[in-house]
Each structure stands twice: as structure tokens, then as C-alpha cells.
Design a protein that fits this description.
Elements (H helix, E strand, L loop, with lengths): L3 E3 L8 E4 L13 E2 L1 H9 L3 E12 L4 E10 L13 H7 L13 E5 L14 E5 H7 L4 H4 L12 H8 L6 E3 L15
Parallel strand pairs: 1-8, 2-5
Antiparallel strand pairs: 2-3, 4-5, 6-7
């Protein structure tokens, strides 16, 4: 995995958003806000500025360094059950087919087919590549002679966050590193 640590602000000067406990709200996608939203949150007194870029924004009546890291003043609980979405399902399954391990052409598959009363729930859906999904068809994995690598389950927000940490972005700003928990090799 190649990751570049930037000394200059990334394109658009986004800010890393931390919860009130100084942990990122999200790892995947990384909790970033555009600079315009950050300035608004600063003026509304919703965030504390933790670190700044060297860039300054100006208006006729004010000037301010662009924040690179902000922390919410009010804690946002992270223990709520995650929504069942395609993205969260793929994240739970680490963006790999649960039958063959491929990361290409991903879809989702009903373990107990809908044609047999299978419902669209965390416990009945797995990530599958199109070839495996087509090969399985309207059968159960056992009938199709296929094995599911990881059992389908309802993940917690903590589990999704942990899975998200496996997918760091390609570019990080140096001011963000103290708040992110990836093994990062700094480029000279």
C-alpha cells in the first residue's frame, strides 16, 4: 500500500474532523470536511481548532488560518447500530467476495435466495463478485457447492471502524498523523 504524507495541504484544504474524544469520526471514508464547512463550524462555536494549515482566508473584515484538524465540542455517540447500506456491507466484508476473495465487480448476494423467502438483512447478505453470484444463482451456498469465508452478521459501528482502518487514503496531511492509527511510512 502506497501512502503519501503531504507537508502542503491536500487539494481543497479539507480538515480532519475528530469527535470530542479526539478520535476520528470515521476512518473509511476518513472524516474530512471542506474548508468552507469548517470555517462555518468555527464561527458557530461547534468545533475547537486543533491544528492549522499555513494558508489564510480573508474577507474585507477578517482573516483566519485554515484549520487542518478540528474537534467537535459535543461528543457524537458511535455505538448506534450501523445502517444497512451497500457501502457498509462491502466494508463489513472488506470489499472482497465472500466466496472467492476477489475484489472485482462486487455485488451482494442473498444467502437464502429471495425466491425462497430470503430477506435483505445483515444476516442473509454477503458481498459476492458477479461471477460467483451468477454461479450460485437461486440456490443456497451449500446447494451450489460454495463456501462463505466469513459468516454474515450484523456488525457494530466499532467493527466497521476497525475494518475501515484497513483502507487508509492515498494522501494524508502531516498534521493529521497524531490522530490516525495506521502504520505509515513517511516519505523523505
Amino acid at each position: 500500500m502506497t501512502m503519501q504524507v503531504l507537508r502542503r495541504p491536500p487539494s481543497g484544504c479539507p480538515a480532519l474532523v475528530l469527535n470530542a474524544d479526539y478520535r476520528p469520526l470515521s476512518y473509511y471514508p476518513l472524516s474530512l470536511w471542506p474548508w468552507q464547512e469548517v470555517i462555518k463550524a468555527v464561527f458557530l462555536d461547534r468545533v475547537d481548532v486543533v491544528s492549522n494549515y499555513d494558508q489564510i482566508v480573508r474577507s474585507p473584515s477578517f482573516e483566519m488560518q485554515l484549520p487542518s484538524v478540528v474537534a467537535l465540542k459535543s461528543y457524537v455517540a458511535q455505538d448506534r447500530p450501523p445502517a444497512f447500506t451497500r457501502f457498509n456491507l462491502f466494508l463489513r466484508d472488506s470489499f472482497t467476495c465472500q466466496y472467492c476473495g476477489s475484489g472485482d465487480d462486487l455485488t451482494f448476494d442473498h444467502i437464502n435466495p429471495r425466491s425462497r423467502g430470503g430477506r435483505t438483512t445483515w444476516e442473509n447478505i454477503v458481498t459476492a463478485c458477479s461471477p460467483c453470484n451468477l454461479a450460485k444463482g437461486g440456490r443456497t451456498p451449500r446447494e451450489a457447492g460454495m463456501v462463505i469465508h466469513h459468516p454474515a452478521h450484523r456488525p457494530t459501528m466499532f467493527q466497521l471502524q476497525e475494518h475501515g482502518r484497513r483502507f487508509p487514503p492515498n494522501h494524508l496531511h502531516a498534521s493529521w498523523l497524531d490522530y490516525l492509527y495506521w502504520d505509515i511510512e513517511l516519505e523523505a
